[in-house]
Hints:
The complex is a heterodimer.
Chain A: H1 3-20, H2 24-35, H3 40-45, H4 53-80, H5 84-87, H6 106-120, E1 124-125, E2 131-132, H7 134-137, E3 157-158, E4 162-164, H8 169-178, E5 183-192, E6 204-215, H9 219-234, E7 240-247, E8 250-259, E9 276-285, H10 287-292, E10 300-308, H11 310-317, H12 323-327, H13 330-333
Parallel strand pairs in A: 1-5
Antiparallel strand pairs in A: 2-4, 3-4, 5-6, 6-10, 7-8, 8-9, 9-10
Helix pairs in contact in A: 1-4, 2-4
Chain B: E1 2-4, H1 5-12, H2 18-27, E2 31-37, E3 45-56, E4 59-68, E5 73-78, E6 88-93, E7 97-98, E8 102-103, E9 107-109, E10 112-114, E11 116-118, H3 146-150, E12 155-160, H4 171-181, E13 195-199, E14 205-208, E15 216-223, H5 232-240, H6 248-260, E16 265-268, E17 276-281, E18 287-289, E19 295-297, E20 303-306, E21 311-314, E22 318-319, E23 332-338, H7 341-351, H8 356-361, H9 370-385, E24 388-391, E25 394-396, E26 404-408, H10 410-417, H11 423-432, E27 436-439, E28 443-447, H12 457-468, H13 489-503, E29 507-508, E30 514-515, H14 517-523, E31 530-531, E32 542-543, H15 547-560, E33 566-576, E34 585-595, H16 611-625, E35 631-634, E36 645-650, E37 653-660, H17 663-668, E38 675-681, H18 682-687, E39 704-713, H19 718-729, E40 733-742, E41 751-760, H20 769-787, E42 790-792
Parallel strand pairs in B: 13-24, 14-17, 29-33
Antiparallel strand pairs in B: 1-12, 2-12, 3-4, 3-6, 4-5, 6-11, 7-8, 9-10, 15-23, 15-24, 15-25, 16-23, 17-20, 18-19, 20-21, 21-22, 26-28, 27-28, 30-32, 31-32, 33-34, 34-38, 35-36, 36-37, 37-38, 39-41, 39-42, 40-41
Helix pairs in contact in B: 1-4, 5-6, 6-9, 19-20
Amino acid sequence: MSLPDEVARLKREALERIGKTDSLASLKELQVLYLGRKGLLTAVLKGLKDLPVDERRHVGGQANQCRRQLEEEFKQAAGRFASPASHTLIDPTLPGTGQRLGAAHIVSQTIDEICRIFYGMGFEIARGPDVETDYYNFEALNFPPDHPARDMQDTFFVEGGRLLRTHTTPVQSRELEKRKPPMKIITPGKCFRNEAISTRAHVSFHQVDGFLVDEDVSMADMKGALVAFCKAFFGEGLKLKFRPSYFPFTEPSAEVDIQCFLCRGKGCRVCQHTGWLEILGCGMIDPAVLEKAGHDPEKYTGYAFGVGVERPAMLKYRIDDIRLFFNNDVRFLRQFI
Amino acid sequence: MKISYNWLRELTGLDWSPEEMGDRLTLCGTACEHIESTARYMDRVLVAEVSELHPVPGADKIQRAVVDTGSERLDVICGAPNVAVGQKVPLATIGATLAGDIKITKAKIRGVVSYGMICSERELGLSDDHSGILVLDPDAPAGKSLVEYLDFDDYMLTFELTPNRPDSMSAIGIARDLAALASLKVTRPTVDLSESAESASDFISVSIDDPLACPRYAARVIRNVKVAPSPWWIRKKLWTAGIRPISNVVDITNLVMLECGHPLHAFDLDRFGSDRVVVRRARDKEKFVTLDGSEHELTENVLLITNGITGVAAAGVMGGMDSEVEDNTTNVLLEAAFFDASIIRKSRKELGIVSESSSRFEKGADPNGIEYAIDRAADLFCRVCGGEVLSTVVDCYPGRIEPKTIDFRPRRCNTVLGTDISTDRMRRIFTDLEFGVGGSETLEVTVPTFRPDIEREIDLIEEVVRIEGFDSVEDSVVNIGALFTPTHYEDHFNSEMRHVLLGTGFDEMVGHGLADSRFASLLNPDLPQVRITNPVSEELNIMRNSLVHTALGVIGHNLAHRNMDLRLFEIGKAYFPPADTSDFHEEERVVLAVTGSTPRGWRGNVRPLDFYDLTGALECLVDHFRWPQFKFTPRRISFLDESLSFRITAGNQPVGWVGRIPGNLARKTDIKQSVLVAELVLAPLIAVSGSLVQFRPLPVYPAAPRDLAIVVDQRVSAGEIVECVRQAAGDLAESVNIFDLYAGEQIEKGKKSVAISISYRSPSGSLSGDAVDEKQRLVTGSLKQMLLAEIRDK
Lengths: 337, 794
């Protein structure tokens, strides 16, 4: 092989190997291998002295150009592996400065999420007082006085004959009274139950109730809306189970169970090995409720539902103690930032 | 409520597995919560004979029993008072696990090695009875497994019933739903009663003083019963229902109640005290001793069964001690009555007793189920206790309660459900539920009195979907209802406020809204409180009348857990009782609180969080919502430190306060470091929020910045300085900022050095240096004159 060909071959080979190096150290080794005092190119160039002068000048020029080109390539390649120390004093592993973001409480985040989903379906938000009358909390909702159904909801009473609402459905009573159909409303808010505080129960909790009243509203419409909600909130592909239940203000009434999203129905600690989680109550608004609010139950029908906030949040984020929500320990709050 | 799986199979003829039965019932509204094997604590439990009993030295409460299992004789320590030689007993052998997680191992007790345990009902998981061991029949074969001997391969189904379904509180009731699911019929036990010639009416009469509270009272007389333990088949049904067997007479009343849902009561006729039953309201302060031995002082809210003189039973709740059936009872007065639900509810609340009987009556029993119940029980008294049933039911039923007939439109049913169920199918569902059905287009459905929950067409529609299953209702995907969704500014306002505050680094709290009245009085002695009349505890006995209350509690909790540096906020309500003629008032507020220091970071700029950290966050809100004239004015606020306490106004309206919590108040919530709080009332702020932005053209001509350093009295506020500069410089001063503030060495005591930067700009042309200097002279002149400022040379 002629000397110029040998130089060209070495150049090709070196360029190829530079392209494949993956560290600065191997690049340095490669540079020594080709361009070092005992390197391959240097060795080839030693043969120059045996050439005639004219040819020597010509080939020597070519070889030096090749050497400079390789040196430049090595330099460029080294740039790929530049260490911070070599080109800048910025340490990107230090935390950035400026204001740390505050943590939104997981209860408000969950309420927001639930409301966003229903808002997307066209539900309007309405609110009402926490200190309620017996009428809106119970009577307007078809709880007869002195009926065992009232025992289902342990109630706090306040001076002045009022009570702390046990659900946000009294907002439904109030809105039904004020408006004309169609009505499509959700009612997020705080509720209260007179229960001993434990890991599973608290005196206060949050709920998003909702209802829809119009002509010809059917249970099929209710199922469609609630299935859409559950998909959006808990994720696709989970089975739902509607089973008959009892609420004085709906008839027929149902509770909805969703396939446990942790074990997908196989059974785990969270779903107490049933494969199902109880997530909401619903039903067709009882004609008596519509009638009390002055709507003709023959003309109008409607559905209502109630979703808890703390309970689904506990399930979704595997929070094992409801008291954590109200202790507001920042180590808890900041986990949900 | 618990019911035996085998019993339900017996009544329906269904061969579904316990799981399938439970699932199908759950899907028709009778929620089955648990399924447990009755034999779950009977593995390695054998029939054994007690052969010998020996005292254990030094222990008088226990004995050493030698028991014979047929194949071996074992020493067993036994502490039961009723153990006797010759008895056949259930013996848990080594390796058995009994109820309460008792594991049987070889154990040395008082120097005696015990190889097992003779079991009570409780240890076998049958009832809560632990008064003595369970004694088996003398002919029980030793060595046989207990499950096999009792033929007790059954399951307890536990149901969580809704309060509207009293009919489900019985085996027949649940079987009725089951049968309807499978389009079958319930087979009730047949009653084949042979009555004696004598009539019960010769022995007893019934009169009802309050027919509203007691619409029906029926009685039978059974003579010559032999009180003894019940046969195993009765005991097994009671055990699977979680009821403790007592004696055949009492057990039969319980069995019939479990079977058909109607509570019965058996009196000892010889100790009844008269020959007449009088049902009346109790007199005020009338005394009565229930059969559990407790004495009650009654009021008119209690309905009493009397013998014409004294009470013998609290109607529908519990019998009396004096007429209770005992071991030597021979003649029985059997009561089957129907009481109004609300009187029973009042009675049991007043007596503080919840019994199997009261929980059925207060949900609504069946007035017309009495015939079957009383005859079924009488038949059993005759067959099981050898009793002689006198002819005639003494039945006082002045106003017969008839079944309701309800018009039912199949089309309406399909409209409400969104289904396409045939009329024939609906008709079939009703007949399977034992309703009567007439009519064709509109059905006339006659609802038996055991279903008091069904009063209207909509209730029948529920029956259809309950039995047909919710799966028969397709999910509709059509969006219906309102055409567009109105939004309310209040909702945006709260949400935006939250996000601004989160952006300023404050963490969000959510309070439960209840508070401690004493602490609230310390914070705001003059502020009225909404008191809870039935609080869970004294610490949670009012609705909070300030969010500061919650914030201090949360800070106290965090500091106790060594979270020392806190910036917190909450948006929530404070609650106030009505003033004068107004209604209860709920006020949306926001509270901000800071304590501790800024985070330690690598740039080392740690400093205590202070007043300006609060106002900085508030100013972000001011900027975002464009609140006009947002001002702090020194003002004494009851829960703030006198030296740092400001009222906040916006648009000249008072909207809140900001300042430091005094040490004595902080210490009440275990806070030992400085806490600063701000609280704003939202309503007046919403009113002045969100004014429309008017665009100003971007400047065309350059700005001329000038800096100025002055020394003024420390009491001169930054606001006064800026205002003074603006007044003097007029419209040309585009911005005026304080960029340095210093008091201390080189500055006269009581004074401070303030550096001000002023940016001059005109919208109509470049300002000449002379024009700016002229303005600057006016500014310095004004500062000297108005604020007695001394101008410092550069």
